[in-house]
Amino acid sequence: MISHPPSQPGGLPPPESLSPPAMYGGQLPRDHTQAILEVTKHVAALLKQSGQPFALAGSVAAFAHGVPARFQHDTDFCVRHEDADAVIQALEAGGISMRRAPEDWLVKGSSGGEDIDLIFELARKPVSTELLDRAEVKAVDSVWMPVLSPTDLMDSRMAALCEHYCDFGDLLPMARMLREQIDWDRLDRTHRADALPDAFLYLLERLRVIDPREATP
């Protein structure tokens, strides 16, 4: 289950979450990294107000766990498919422009020129209550929100590896920074039969980021 600081039993801290943070008078900062953080905080505040379960994902989630900021072109949130309509309504009511995507596993939004992805499927599996329950409440640039656990975050990144996208360099910093927080045995069991994720785990062994795995019988 999500663990909450004791000062706020049964809810997300702190009281500032009761209203979405102001975004510089309606204008996002010019710096792309800070702009992504402002949009992330705004969306998280709206989602907390809606009462729908969610978790921050992607590069901003990695940042929340301590990985240096290296944001992509958007901010990602995991929500259950059955909550999609309620979540979209809450974000639109908060001034977020939403649109359906060609893919059936996400919905896209935008705010101040920055993109937002609501993801219904992660690591080739539907976003579930169990996945969201494993999220950890973290402060993202002073706003508290549930963030995918390090293991689930790495699982999602490894599942995305394919012949058209195989950038280990993007995963190595996360593996090094979060290695003590990741259940590598679980990832080995999940991905050993998949060539590219298994190759990444082998690379981590050779670089001594993780301990050698037991050979498959």
Describe this protein's structure.
This protein has 217 residues and is of the alpha+beta class. It folds into two domains: 31-148, Beta Polymerase, domain 2 (2-Layer Sandwich); 149-216, no CATH class. The protein contains eight helices and nine strands. Strands 1-2-5-4-3 form a five-stranded mixed sheet. It has a two-stranded antiparallel sheet with strand order 6-7. A two-stranded antiparallel sheet has the order 8-9. Helix 1 crosses helix 3 and helix 5 packs antiparallel against helix 6 (168-178). It comes from Streptomyces subrutilus. Residues 1-18 have a biased composition (Pro residues). InterPro entries: NT_sf, NTP_transf_5. Pfam families: NTP_transf_5 (PF14907). This is Nucleotidyltransferase family protein.
Short description:
The chain has 217 residues and is of the alpha+beta class.
